[in-house]
Amino acid sequence: MTGPVAPSTGRTRPTVGARVLRALRRWPGRLSGPGLAGALLLFGVSLGPALVPRAALYQGAVAGVCAAIGYGLGVLLAWVVRRVGVPWSRRGSRWFRRALLGATVVVVPAALVWNATWQDELLELFGEPPADSSHPVVVLGLALVLAVLLLQVGRGLRRIARGVAWLLGKVVGRWVPAPVARLVAVALVAWLAVVVVDGTVVRGGLAALGAISAAADGGTADGVEQPTDPLRSGSDASLARWDELGLQGRSFVAGGRPLDQRQRVADLTGRELVDPIRVYAGLGAGQDLEEVAQVVVAELDRTHAWDRSVLAVVTATGTGWIDPSMSDSLELLWGGDTAIASMQYSYLPSWVSFVGDRSTPPAAGKALFEAVYARWSQLPEDDRPLLYVAGISLGSYGSQGAFSSVQDVVARTDGALWVGTPGFTPLWREVTEGRDAGSPEIAPVVDQGVTVRSANRPASGADRQLWTLGDDWSRPRVVYDQHASDGVVWWSPRLILERPDWLAEPRGTDVLPSTRWVPLVTFWQTTIDLFVAGQAPAGHGHNYHLEYADGWAAIAPPDGWDAADTAVLRDVVALRKSEA
Predict the structure, then answer these.
(1) Half-sphere exposure of 287 (CA within 13 A, CB side)
(2) What CA–CA distance (Å, rounded) separates 265 from 333?
């Protein structure tokens, strides 16, 4: 037998799906109206002009972070308004939300169209065809997901802070006022969040990236083969083993331009072609940076590099990469009568070191230069090669770490070529901030260009900043090459609250006039530019393919070299290695 049946109430229990939908419908109503207004404002602004075109995923990330920041600022402003006693009725709140909904319908599509428009304008400025699509749906979808995720994280931290404040009130409420307890709770939760993020997320992420990068470092790029020339590290005659050079080291020692391209430039000066020397040591060549550097010096001894006309100490980027155009341009310029020395100091990509390890690159740059300089200094002054230093990006930062000042560079080298230098580099910052009055940040003039000069535009010959100050400048020479559209150069935490000179002064030739500084937003836009600047066309962003020809010709020209020769060199550098 069955028991008595409970009387029906006439209601059915809603399904899980129905309850979720109901919660989703109610969720927007629980959001702060001023917070949503702030999110909409910064979302729209974040889609405005930047330094380089960016893919939809990167643009969506910028917009999502900015929307979350805008929401937080809107909530903070509303709290301040309430605290000062400004009246705000429910009716006013309803009308505000209706107006906000109308604004959203207008602002979101307009901002997405604006984003597509300025990117096409920038591509035209770069000499590129317009993009097929800016993928507005992807941008909007990613921005919403990321903003909601960050909002929920913020709300979770706020609940934890409230719980801690309540607990403190129970324990020490008799002696500590409630406002003080809340302040302590917020500070404690913030500190714990930083500890967790830094100790778990950041350090764990770096460890994982290090393991992945170390595994990838054991590979060899397509088309790269072990050199047979004894003048190259990694050959059978080398003290540096091929399998210990690392992925980028193997590409460097196996690289170089074909004979016909080298001959074309050599014909300008009548120099006899010789095979260039390239020496390199991988991270595993020693127990520390000093030992790795000593392997490089031993390779210079083995290859008789001290008999060459030019020796360049090039600091690599994070993974050990050396821009092929940098080394190729110098070897073409001198007909191969060169030696280039470098070494690996990390497995991590440059952007990881850029964020999490700024001590190793300058330590490596210093270790390598000091080791080479000590051996070079032992040679007779009239019987040793010209000594140059160079680097791009994190390599430029590391290379400059070997010197205390420009005077130190001049005293111990025959010149320096530093390209795409990160803005946090102390020596670069000293030069830039000490520039002559009236010269712009993007192309600073120091002491009327007598020793240090800058170039900030795509390679275009005589109208570049290197030459507009005249051909008569002293030696040694220091050249900084930096595009106005290179976010690696202009990124700085100061962008959060301070308008930089490069946006307060006249824009660079490859920066849109509509580009403006917006607190917080410009910082996040430029942060994303760190990841995409290298994808810009040659001559823009962080792509310095042709600029090496002008740079090396400025600081290390052979006897009789002139501007017409530089034009030929630039044409040859522009060729692919397979082209005649």
Answers:
(1) 0
(2) 7
Q: What is the DSSP string of 519-532?
A: TTHHHHHHHHHHHH
Please list, in sequence order, all residues whose beta carbon lies within 8 angstroms of the beta carbon of residue 547, skipping any fewer than 6 positions away. 419, 455, 458, 459, 481, 539
Q: Where are the domains of the chain?
A: 27-176, 218-483+544-574
- Longest distance between any two alpha carbons in the chain, whole Å: 114
What is the Cα–Cα distance from 409 to 452, expressed in whole angstroms? 11
Please identify which residue in the block is written with the tokens 């170089």. Answer: 256
With a cut of 50, which residues of the chain have pLDDT below it? 1, 459, 461-464, 580
- Is the backbone peptide bond immediately before 476 cis, with ω within 30 degrees of 0? yes
Q: What is the pLDDT of residue 29?
A: 62
Q: Which residues contact 236 (CB under 8 A, 6 or more apart)?
A: 228, 230
Q: Is the dihedral of CA 52, 55, 56, 62 positive or negative?
A: negative
The predicted pLDDT at position 563 comes to 86
Q: Supply the DSSP string of 4-47, one letter for each residue.
A: PPPPP-S--PPPHHHHHHHHHHHGGGGS-HHHHHHHHHHHHHHT
What pLDDT score does 83 carry? 77
Neighbours of 250 (CB within 10 A): 26
Write the pLDDT tens digit of every residue in 24-46: 556 566 788 889 999 999 999 99
Quick one: pLDDT at residue 43? 94
Strands 415-419 vs 452-455: parallel, antiparallel or unpaired = unpaired
Question: What pLDDT sits at residue 249?
Answer: 94
At 99, list the tokens. 């107006």
